[in-house]
Amino acid sequence: MEETIDIRAINEKIEKESAFIDLLTMEINKIIVGQKHMVERLLIGLLGKGHILLEGVPGLAKTLAINTLSKAVQGSFSRIQFTPDLLPADVVGTLIYNMKENDFSIKKGPIFANFVLADEINRAPAKVQSALLEAMQEKQVTIGDETFILDKPFLVMATQNPVEQEGTYPLPEAQVDRFMLKVVIDYPKMDEEQLIMRANLKGNFEKVNSVITVDQIIKAQEAVKDVYMDEKIEKYILDIIFATRYPEKYNLEDLKPLISFGASPRGSINLATAAKCYAFIKRRGYVIPEDVRAVVHDVLRHRIGITYEAEAENITSEEIINKIVNEIEVP
User: Fold this and answer.
1) Which residues form a coiled coil (predicted)?
2) Which residues make Cβ contacts (< 8 Å) with residue 3, sequence separation at least 6?
3) pLDDT (tens digit per residue) in 132-185
4) Which residue among 142, 215, 245, 274 is least crowded, i.e. fewest CB within 10 A of its CB?
5) How much is the pTM?
6) Which CATH fold would you assign to the domain 227-327?
């Protein structure tokens, strides 16, 4: 027997639970001008317990955004500047010999925070990136023979600069897959940049207040799970994911030679989670196809491998996603 789902009750509950979103956005917007897309995606990552990879040229307020978010939520913040000589111990911490007690004590690294900014992640070699990975995936860190569970919420925001190739180590596919969203940030509009310029010249920045506690965020992360997703929407998400793997089954034969590999099951999980978070941010208790379409690029752009043939024709994963989304029937 199928249980009846009371959409109205869920809707009322979510509307109440998501009231803090406007408050939080207002606080962040005191400092961050424009960049609405980036701020929304940060909130999706936070609510969906995911991590975010931000790609954009230097100076687009990537560091500032996560710093502001951690101030608006009463959370701890740490920033790790990735460099070629960074060691895993510089990220997770290390054992230090204590001469007085003739014993080793543990010094925890900057990964022990609610919000961790991994700045220019592609500047560090794979060994360091993998140390960050255990923390991202398992939400725990091992130092010596002790394992520590990380504080909740735990959000890693990594940035990478798409312009420089020298001295960078491209992130392996398996690692990129750990990021719930890959957000590409563009320059601000002219009127926004005028406001940014004025604020910086005056130098009188508003103070960001803590408007919400870490416990409220944890509660909201649980509330997101209650957002209703109809089976038709689940089917829609699976169709999009399967079209990245078997385009020929979806009338998209021309994409076959362009895709080297499609999205993994992490792709479908994250697409469903991100759609629920997006509905929550829009203060709705149920997911509509527009929610899926709103987040599909950020969830899938780093999960579709493109072939040399696609590169030769200058076709990006963005365009492949566009073709898939336009072809698949909306429920």
Assistant:
1) none
2) none
3) 877 888 888 888 788 888 888 888 888 887 766 666 777 777 778 889 999 988
4) 215
5) 0.86
6) Helicase, Ruva Protein; domain 3 (1.10.8)
